[in-house]
């Protein structure tokens, strides 16, 4: 998950600024205050943050229990107030604070106290809107002192962060000067029906000084596919440039003689107590693909079948190379070796549930071996053998079928994942013992 296109990463010799910086040159022309179309949402979000942070402020410091990574606090913010929430002038709304003690520990680890956090975000209940050309559709906001960035995210992105939170938290605790984006809070506002549905917001540290001009901004993802800005976009002085813009401009990162940055990058990527970038493998493209597929399927019906290496959990260190049906080192004979990583089918199922769950069915994940057996592989092979006279051809057919169902081997390494429209699977889905409806809720 990207922490955000602008100013959301840290450097090894500076944490989030310990003192809020202000500047007469800071752009306040996009201030979201009373009368702005986004003011109601921002007010609800900031009031919820202030209430939630204050509620857990006096909890004693201690080692976190595993269940606290999944904890959340829900508050019903009634206009007239309640025992847990203050009165306010907006419509009634519900606020959810995810993993409050975990994020508090992360904030304090990087020198951000509860008082500083609330002062930056909620002293005036206003934010500064940041305009970007983000294709994700996310909105970005600064706190008024520019110390923090708030980014809207999808429900799927929020769910993934919570899933990866134990590893992420462990890495940050072990590496104070990590270059990873520092997330300081994850929140959700369930809006009144007149304003929409629900909005998820990530709060992260901003390490870029606001009193210095920024001539170019880049969002680098390590990909070149579609990663370029148009001529029209480049006319905007605040445009966020991309990977191909960086390459064509001949830009390079100059790290200087101090090797701390390089060493920390290596720790973030492959070393340390919890090598978080090695242990959490995700594919945002797969999530987007399944989301679009489910939206189409909910309208046009049909079914989808996916077969690949994978599990129901987030994969770890699964990069592999295959050459002539045998495992080899991924860098062996580049260009000839097939490279693959495991698919996180559990996350894809959750994407389907949240996209169109009530109109879809999703059978439990099956091995290729069990799926082919249920589809009658043995009977089909026997039928083919009866029509074959060539002895060697018969042996090759049996060998090929054996490879497909071998355990250990392709039969258990490959998994079969299916999604169907509710009407298609009402009498069962071929190859699976059952196909329950997705309920459309839960994380």
UniProtKB/TrEMBL annotation:
This entry's Enzyme Commission designation comes to 2.1.1.320
Subcellular localization(s) per the UniProt record:
Mitochondrion
Q: Quick one: where is this thing mainly located?
A: mitochondrion
Q: What class does this enzyme belong to in the EC scheme?
A: transferase
SUPFAM superfamilies named in the record: S-adenosyl-L-methionine-dependent methyltransferases, SAICAR synthase-like
Which GO molecular-function terms appear in the entry? 1-phosphatidylinositol-4-phosphate 5-kinase activity; ATP binding; protein-arginine omega-N symmetric methyltransferase activity
Please name the PROSITE patterns in this protein's record.
PIPK
The PIPK domain extends over: 35-443
Q: Where is this region: Disordered?
A: 1-30
The question of whether NADP is a record keyword is answered with no
UniProt keyword annotations, A-Z: ATP-binding, Kinase, Methyltransferase, Mitochondrion, Nucleotide-binding, Transferase
Catalytic activity, per the record? Answer: L-arginyl-[protein] + 2 S-adenosyl-L-methionine = N(omega),N(omega)'-dimethyl-L-arginyl-[protein] + 2 S-adenosyl-L-homocysteine + 2 H(+)
GO BP annotations of the record are: methylation; phosphatidylinositol phosphate biosynthetic process
A single Gene Ontology CC annotation of this entry is:
plasma membrane
Similarity remark:
Belongs to the NDUFAF7 family.
Q: What is this protein called?
A: type II protein arginine methyltransferase
Q: Which organism is it from?
A: Chrysochromulina tobinii
């Amino acid at each position: 998950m990207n922490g955000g296109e602008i100013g959301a990463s840290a450097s090894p010799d500076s944490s989030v600024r310990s003192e809020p910086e202000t500047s007469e040159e800071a752009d306040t022309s996009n201030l979201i205050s009373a009368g702005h179309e986004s003011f109601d949402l921002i007010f609800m979000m900031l009031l919820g943050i202030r209430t939630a942070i204050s509620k857990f402020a006096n909890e004693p410091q201690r080692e976190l229990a595993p269940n606290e990574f999944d904890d959340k606090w829900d508050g019903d913010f009634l206009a007239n107030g309640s025992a847990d929430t203050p009165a306010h002038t907006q419509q009634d709304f519900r606020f959810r604070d995810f993993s409050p003690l975990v994020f508090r520990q992360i904030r304090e680890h990087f020198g951000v106290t509860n008082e500083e956090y609330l002062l930056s975000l909620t002293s005036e209940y206003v934010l500064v809107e940041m305009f970007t050309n983000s294709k994700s559709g996310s909105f970005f906001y600064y706190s008024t002192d520019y110390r923090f960035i708030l980014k809207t995210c999808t429900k799927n992105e929020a769910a993934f962060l919570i899933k990866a939170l134990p590893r992420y938290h462990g890495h940050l605790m072990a590496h104070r000067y990590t270059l990873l984006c520092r997330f300081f809070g994850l929140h959700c506002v369930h809006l009144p029906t007149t304003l929409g549905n629900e909005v998820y917001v990530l709060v992260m540290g901003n390490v870029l000084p606001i009193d210095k001009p920024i001539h170019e901004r880049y969002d680098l993802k390590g990909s070149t596919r579609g990663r370029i800005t148009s001529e029209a976009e480049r006319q905007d002085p605040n445009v966020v440039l991309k990977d191909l813009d960086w390459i064509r401009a001949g830009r390079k990162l100059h790290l200087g003689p101090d090797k701390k940055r390089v060493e920390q990058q290596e720790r973030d990527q492959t070393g340390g107590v919890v090598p978080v970038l090695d242990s959490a493998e995700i594919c945002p493209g797969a999530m987007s693909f399944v989301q679009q597929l489910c939206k189409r399927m909910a309208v046009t019906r049909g079914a989808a079948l996916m077969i690949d290496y994978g599990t129901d959990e987030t994969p770890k260190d699964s990069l592999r190379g295959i050459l002539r049906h045998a495992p080899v080192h991924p860098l062996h004979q580049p260009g000839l070796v097939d490279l693959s990583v495991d698919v996180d089918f559990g996350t894809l199922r959750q994407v389907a549930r949240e996209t169109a769950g009530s109109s879809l069915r999703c059978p439990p994940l099956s091995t290729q071996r069990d799926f082919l057996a249920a589809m009658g592989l043995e009977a089909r092979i026997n039928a083919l053998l009866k029509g074959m006279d060539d002895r060697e051809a018969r042996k090759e057919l049996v060998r090929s079928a054996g490879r497909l169902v071998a355990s250990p081997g392709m039969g258990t390494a490959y998994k079969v994942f299916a999604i169907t429209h509710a009407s298609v699977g009402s009498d069962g889905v071929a190859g699976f013992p059952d196909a329950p409806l997705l309920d459309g809720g839960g994380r």
